[in-house]
Amino acid sequence: MAGVTDMVFRSLCKELGADVMVTEFVSSEGILQRDDRTRHYTEFDEPQRPLGVQLFGADGVRMGEAARKIIDWKQPDFIDINFGCPVNKVVAKNGGSSLLKNCPVLAEVARGVVEGVSSTGVPVTAKMRTGWDAQSINAVEVAHILEDCGIQAIAVHGRTRAQGYSGVADWEVIAQVAEAVKIPVIGNGDVACGADVEVRRAQTPVNGIMIGRAAMTNPWVFQEARHFLEHGVQPPPASIEDRFTFMRRHCQMSIARSTRGEFEVMRAMRSRLMHYTKSIPGGKHLRNSFAHITSVMELDDIAAQHLAARDFRAEQV
Asked: What is the rounded CA–CA span in Å between residue 232 and residue 313?
């Protein structure tokens, strides 16, 4: 979720019902060496609590130093260690999911961060995958190591590093992890609606559910999940009008927070806007339009044209 779960998006997800959130992951070496460029990844405001700052790296002592630095800055509710990222440039630096195939270093990292922040009282959690590949699924072993190192909760994404985001998340392995350790386990993978949350809670002994990529296209998923858990039915999806209103607000908030200017922010927002169209009738046409968008005014024009065309089609039926 790097490049997605920035401060603005987290604020919007919190409004829509997200309980606990984690920042974009940040390099521990970046924090120690160039905090002027990386510090903004750790920023959050009080309404977003409870919130954790997520770190990645392969040197436990230095990661502990980076975690203490972050705690001095912002006092997050917890520090989260990323043992799950499958991206090549992270794995190549022995970070993220690469440590799943090097358990001694993984243990050093976990222990180093826990010991590094022990005096602060801030708990440390971890995010992991089921293993490096299908031949080395070791999530239960890794979970025991993390528990022994003092990690206080574990989130498990039900895929191996080799899978990336393909295939189907293996919730049986997630269940095995939850049964194997005494600390809380949060399940993650292929949770896209309230019904998915209910099913996974009923079928596995997890203590919580983590939603990631589904929020990129449907941030209302948190609201929908709460509604389903309370009433047992899936609420109606957000209307097209609500989606356009949300897109506009996301853009405006991002522009207000940035120093880069509207043009640059809207260029960066193109992929985000495209994600929001994936459940809208005529979404392909909208994505073609958003691929070149440069201003909020253009967004307003695209929305007005799309809604007018929809209403015209409805009148012809």
From this structure: 34
Examine residue 226 and state whether it is found in any structural domain, yes or no: no
Measured CA to CA, the distance from residue 268 to residue 273 in angstroms comes to 10
- Does residue 294 sit in the same domain as residue 189? no
What pLDDT, in 10s, does the model give residues 261-280? 999 999 999 999 999 998 88
The rounded distance, in Å, linking the Cα atoms of 29 and 63 is 8
pLDDT digits (tens, 9 = 90+) for 122-143: 999 999 999 999 999 999 999 9
* Angle, helix 7-15 to helix 240-257, in steps of 10 degrees: 140
The whole-angstrom separation of Cα 287 and Cα 276 is: 9
Handedness of CA 3, 99, 167, 237 (dihedral sign): negative
* Alpha carbon distance 206, 45 (integer Å): 29
d(CA 113, CA 127): 14
Residue at 2 is within a domain: no
Catalytic residues, which ones? 85
Summarize pLDDT for 30-52 with one digit per residue, the tens: 999 877 778 888 999 999 999 99
One domain for residues 149 and 286 = no
Q: Containing domain of residue 249, as a range?
A: 240-316
Q: For position 312, what pLDDT does the model report?
A: 63
> Cis peptide before 50, with omega less than 30 degrees from 0?
yes
